[in-house]
Amino acid sequence: MQKNTRLKGKVWKAGNDIDTDLIIAARYLNTSDPKHLAEHCLEDVFPTLQEEIQAGDILVAGKNFGCGSSREHAPIAIKHAGFSCVIAESFARIFYRNAINIGLPIIVAPQLAKAVKPGWELEVDPVSGLICDLINAKEYQGEPFPPFILEILTSGGLVPYVKKKVKQHG
Predict the structure, then answer these.
(1) Which pLDDT value is given to residue 2?
(2) Max CA-CA distance within the chain?
(3) d(Cα 149, Cα 133) in Å, to the nearest integer?
(4) Most C-beta atoms within 10 A of its C-beta, which of 9, 13, 94, 126?
(5) What are the residues facing 124 on neighbouring strands?
(6) Which H/E stretch holds residue 139?
(7) CA–CA separation, 74 vs 123, rounded Å?
(8) Could you tell me which residues come within 8 angstroms of residue 128 by beta carbon, excluding any fewer than 6 positions away?
(9) Are the C-beta atoms of 45 and 66 separated by less than 8 Å?
(10) What mean pLDDT value characterizes the chain?
(11) Across the strands, what pairs with 139?
């Protein structure tokens, strides 16, 4: 994610308490290959996801998204399936951190998460947290990232961020 990037895509709407096993079932965790994980991302929630997703689409969910085990495979599967970001009413803490660590923008926006419908088109400014519902010409304010998290995201995740910092201070 670049610092001035706006994300635009069609909404895929999930419910409350989508756990990491629904995001990527344990039966697929014999590898950490992002392509393999993406092929099975959310397959029990959206059976036609692989045929219909467009790069940049946006996943919107209810409360407690990413609960369950602390597997980092879940945000990797979401990112490599083609989602540009995840917006939810709330996130499980470990999922939130794992998503940031792999460079997947996730935004807390309870009002939008309750209002939006599948198929709507959104434009998201991950820096400010501003989300535009392009279907109804409405704006919602999500929680913006603190500067240090924004720097991790704009670096592409925690590993690229650390490499950049080591190089700067090397």
Answers:
(1) 64
(2) 50
(3) 25
(4) 126
(5) 7, 131
(6) strand 138-141
(7) 23
(8) 144
(9) no
(10) 94
(11) 132
Which residues have a Cβ under 8 Å from the Cβ of 5 and sit 6 or more positions away? Answer: 126
> Which amino acid does the sequence have at 157?
G
Other Cβ atoms within 10 Å of 107 Cβ, number: 26
* pLDDT tens string 1-55: 666 689 999 999 999 999 999 999 999 999 889 999 999 999 999 999 999 999 9
Residue-wise pLDDT tens digits, 91-122: 999 999 999 999 999 999 999 999 999 999 99
Residues 6+ away with beta carbon under 8 Å from 159: 101
DSSP summary character for residue 108 = E
Q: Give residue-wise pLDDT tens across range 129-162.
A: 999 999 999 999 999 999 999 999 999 999 999 9
> Position of tokens 């592409």?
156
C-beta separation of 68 from 92 below 8 A: yes
Residue type, 161: Y
Kindly tell me if the per-residue pLDDT of 56 is higher than 90. Answer: yes
Q: How many CA atoms lie within 13 A of 28 on its CB side?
A: 25
